[in-house]
Amino acid sequence: MAQEVNDTNFDEVVLRSDKPVMVDFWAEWCGPCRMIAPFMEEMAKDFEGKALVVKCDVDNSPNVAVKYSIRNIPTVLFFKNGQVADKQIGAVPKTNFISKLNALL
Q: Is 56 known to be catalytic?
């Protein structure tokens, strides 16, 4: 299951990770977010031990959303060594997320 991150634990979980991290910025009311949610859960299992796949609810974590200028959801940011390395906005096929994450391994 994809780990939840928020304003409190984002820096510790995402920025200090020694593995690449894929962060799904989403909200409960967002239809496209619900469309890609199964991909996030599958990828959390598929990449276990190699990368982290986490979710950040923008309604519950407004500070993180503002810090990374999240204006549209879903937005998926890819972090490596505490820095944003790639970005995907909108609901796209799972293969897009896989190739972006694989590029950071």
A: no
Domains of the chain: 3-102 (3.40.30.10)
Q: What is the pTM of this model?
A: 0.96
| From 23, 33, 58, 73, the catalytic residue | 33
Per-residue pLDDT of the chain (105 residues; tens, 9 = 90+): 899 999 999 999 999 999 999 999 999 999 999 999 999 999 999 999 999 999 999 999 999 999 999 999 999 999 999 999 999 999 999 999 999 999 999
Please state, in angstroms and rounded to a whole number, the distance separating the CA atoms of residues 70 and 58.
Answer: 8
Among 67, 103, 104, 68, which Cα is nearest to 89's? Answer: 68
Give the DSSP H or E segment for 101: helix 94-102
Query: Catalytic one among 21, 23, 30, 36?
Result: 30
**Is 30 in the active site?**
yes
